Amino acid sequence: MADTIEIRNLTAEDYFDLKESMLSAYSDMQGSYWREPTIRRLISLFPEGQIAVAVNGKVVGCALSIIVDYDKFGDDHTYEEITGYYTFSTHNPKGNVLYGIEVFVHPEYRGMRLARRLYDARKVICEQLNLRGIVAGGRIPNYDKYSDKLTPREYIDKVRYKEIYDPTLTFQISNDFTVKKILRNYLPSDEASHGFATLLQWYNIYYEDDRDTIRLNKSTVRIGLVQLQMRTYRGVDELMKQAEYFVDAVSDYESDFCVFPELFNAPLMMEFNQLDQAGAMRGLANYTESIRQKFSEFAVSYNVNIITGSMPIVIDEQLYNISYLCRRDGTFDFYKKIHLTPNEVSAWGMKGGDEIKVFDTDCGKIGILICYDVEFPELSRILAHQGMKILFVPFLTDTQNGYNRVRFCAQARAIENECYVAIAGCVGNLPKVNNMDLQYAQSSVFTPSDFQFPVNGTKADATPNTEMIVIADVDLVLLKELHAFGSVQNLKDRRTDLYEIEIKKKSEPKQRELPNEWSEG
């Protein structure tokens, strides 16, 4: 008959089973067990923080915790200090950290993954109470066997790399705890650990520093992509009526972003057919500011952030390919395409931009790269280090192999930077516009590749070469989970001891790539 396992809150009536299990668990620490009044006090102070595991109705282990204002103690503390010399006067329901003061399982019941269940239950409490994380001082009971050969730091490193097994530390590392430092004289009575302990931390990736939901960034973001059919227009007003039609359609689905393709306004170049290609593109640039103004108006009136695709612009007599972010609060920002295709340089005389930056929005930090830019992985890697969660890529491609370069590279960027990537392109043809003959596109939203996401890494696809919109929801919480618990962690696992990416720009100090540690803000 199979054993029945129950995880529940500890009660005062469980004490005698608890004492028996603790005496067995700490046989190397003679007489070390919690007295009944102490357990009763813990239960009365913080009942939901005291967790028991029972097998066939018998309590065989527990996890005991308090909440502390960790800033008052810092990383240099002893067990007596953090527990208020066993009075638990340090427990503060308004604190910010769940402090683990005890975890044990009766030796006869080890191998049943009971301790893992206790740790998981403790993590749930931490998340439900919106605490920053779990902190605990951990024993290193096998250190006694190596103390004449290894320092505590050397011992911990060998346990981390599985050269040495420690029943406590090995388990804690496998449960996503990290060793922040070594504590001296943490628990002097722990002779097996020689009084040393590891300061262990587990970070709550769901922690919200400010629970004012009005000001919080959204966790689920709705993206609307406009796959626009190229057609002739009788001037810029007609073009913007068509653009407004799509903004309206995307807004009807309560989207947070509306994304247009690269050079979506190219049909207006027909007005300048009497000029050479470079002259026609500069003529098109005359409309850019008025188009940007209309998009800013649409963003406010339709309550949607708009990525305006891209348009040519002349700045100090230089021609650039620029994309605007028109926020729904009325503000706007811009990005100038950095990598230009040979045709953009030879036919239009364009110049590349020189600024790599993320943009703050009410849905978190985003990045914008224009078409060819996404084929250079360094740019999006820098944006990821700046906190980007969604990368938007307006593009314009005339052939399927050109489109595939954009698509495959965009998918790679989603995987290697653990972010979402949305691409939007034009379809159709403009036979009366020089150098803008045909367009091929399939607009898409791509995801990282792990269990939380679609198996093919694609959240949504448009029908190829068909005018339409694509609406897709992306969950930013899944990115947090991926960063912390992913099967692989592309950002975290980079060998920054061997290589790095630098931003080289004379007007700013050199910026170096740093090892990734998940944090908010």
Automatic annotation (TrEMBL):
UniProt GO molecular function: acyltransferase activity, transferring groups other than amino-acyl groups; hydrolase activity
InterPro entries membership: Acyl_CoA_acyltransferase, C-N_Hydrolase, C-N_Hydrolase_sf, GNAT_dom, UPF0012_CS
Domain named N-acetyltransferase: residues: 5-212
Location of the CN hydrolase domain: 221-476
A UniProt-annotated Pfam family: CN_hydrolase
Keywords: Hydrolase
Family in the record: Belongs to the carbon-nitrogen hydrolase superfamily. NIT1/NIT2 family.
Name recorded for this polypeptide: Carbon-nitrogen hydrolase
Organism: Chitinophaga caeni
